């Protein structure tokens, strides 16, 4: 890991942004999507925004565009050409950069394996709980000496984002899991049969390699966060099937990605309107109330 080599203090580094082309920034940007670059191909027009963060650059420059009248910031989680494996993604930089351009509501689509026979390939699950089995990832903003910050994480996901995503997923005609526990494993390898069995026993519904520590980092920045998981396969040993392969995951993902985009579009359109930090009512936005922070938060 290189993260311990230099640990800049967040307040000592600017997080300014600059447009890289001459088109106008639509505003206010309030919604952010962390997903593949294919997810913003549907934008009529967009611009690229370079954002510096105290944690280094995000996986890819932020792309800001218009989705049915809402200004949305996208970041490609795995970078251009899908070059960062799940354990190498700079999650802190990605969330910090999104907040810097104004984002307060994050949608995080991800591909997952199913641990339950009822959710086959193509199903959408909007998890309400998470079990974080990742390790070695920079997972918190609050690791400097100074005021200790413990945020609540009993309910990891945004209630308003979840209900909007569930409603949108139901319009897709796919099977929808309106609740479920997402187990996040470190990867990049898939689980052994024993690990898969353990994750099922632990109450897991689906298993993936991303969105943690994303969800926790969003909470640490008082942002709303909603995971939208698309099932690409049955995890090892589920349903007595063959073990999952990378090729199968890619094939199922490709054949369902248009529907995923449609669900995302509808979710974006249905999300609550922008609220100022001072009077935001969603509990996610109040996660830092009463806490002394070691540095100012970026954005707006
Ligand atoms: Zn929320």
Overview features:
Rossmann fold, binds zinc ion, alpha/beta, single chain, 21% helix, globular, 12 strands, 300 residues
What is the secondary structure topology, with strand pairs?
Elements: E1 17-19, E2 31-35, E3 46-51, E4 62-67, E5 70-76, H1 91-100, E6 105-114, E7 124-125, E8 129-133, H2 159-170, E9 176-177, E10 181-185, H3 193-201, E11 206-208, H4 214-220, E12 224-234, H5 246-270
Parallel strand pairs: 2-5, 2-6, 6-12, 7-9, 8-10, 10-11
Antiparallel strand pairs: 1-3, 3-4, 4-5, 6-11, 7-12
The protein binds zinc ion.
The site of zinc ion has 6 residues, from helix 2.
Our measurement of the CA-to-CA distance between the termini, rounded to an integer number of angstroms, reads: 32 Å
Overall mean pLDDT stands at 88
Bound molecules: zinc ion
Number of E strands = 12
Low-confidence spans: pLDDT under 50, at least 5 residues?
1-8, 11-23
Give the count of helical stretches: 5
Question: How is this structure best described in words?
Answer:
- This protein is of the alpha/beta class.
- It has a single domain, classed as Nucleoside phosphorylase domain (Rossmann fold), CATH 3.40.50.
- Helices cover 21% and strands 22% of the residues.
- It has 5 helices and 12 strands.
- The protein has helices at residues 91-100, 159-170, 193-201, 214-220, 246-270; strands at residues 17-19, 31-35, 46-51, 62-67, 70-76, 105-114, 124-125, 129-133, 176-177, 181-185, 206-208, 224-234.
- Strands 1, 2, 3, 4, 5, 6, 7, 8, 9, 10, 11 and 12 form a 12-stranded mixed β-sheet that branches.
- β4 and β5 (70-76) form a beta hairpin.
- α2 crosses α5 (246-270).
- The protein is globular, with a radius of gyration of 18 Å.
- The model is unreliable at 1-8 and 11-23 (pLDDT under 50).
- Zinc ion is lined by residues 158, 160-161, 224, 282, 284.
């Amino acid at each position: 890991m290189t993260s311990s080599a230099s640990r800049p203090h967040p307040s000592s580094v600017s997080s300014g942004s600059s447009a890289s082309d001459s088109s106008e920034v639509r505003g206010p940007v309030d919604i952010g999507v962390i997903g593949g670059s294919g997810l913003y191909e549907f934008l009529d027009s967009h611009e690229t925004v370079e954002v510096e963060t105290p944690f280094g650059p995000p996986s890819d420059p932020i792309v800001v565009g218009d989705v049915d009248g809402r200004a949305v910031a996208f970041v490609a989680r795995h970078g251009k050409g899908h070059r960062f494996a799940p354990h190498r993604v700079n999650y802190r930089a990605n969330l910090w950069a999104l907040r810097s351009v104004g984002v307060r509501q994050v949608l995080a689509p991800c591909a997952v394996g199913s641990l339950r026979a009822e959710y086959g390939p193509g199903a959408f699950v909007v998890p309400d709980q998470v079990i974080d089995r990742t390790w070695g990832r920079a997972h918190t903003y609050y690791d400097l000496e100074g005021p200790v910050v413990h945020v609540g994480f009993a309910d990891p996901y945004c209630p308003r984002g979840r209900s909007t995503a569930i409603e949108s997923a139901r319009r897709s005609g796919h099977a929808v899991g309106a609740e479920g526990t997402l187990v996040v494993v470190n990867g990049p390898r898939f689980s052994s049969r024993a690990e898969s069995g353990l994750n099922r026993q632990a109450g897991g519904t689906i298993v993936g390699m991303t969105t943690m520590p994303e969800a926790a980092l969003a909470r640490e920045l008082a942002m709303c966060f909603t995971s939208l998981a698309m099932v690409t396969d049955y995890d090892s040993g589920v349903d007595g099937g063959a073990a999952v392969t990378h090729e199968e995951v890619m094939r199922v993902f490709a054949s369902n990605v248009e529907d995923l985009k449609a669900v995302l579009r509808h979710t974006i359109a249905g999300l609550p309107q922008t609220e100022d930090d001072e009077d935001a009512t969603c509990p996610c936005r109040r996660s830092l109330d009463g806490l002394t922070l070691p540095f100012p938060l970026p954005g707006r």
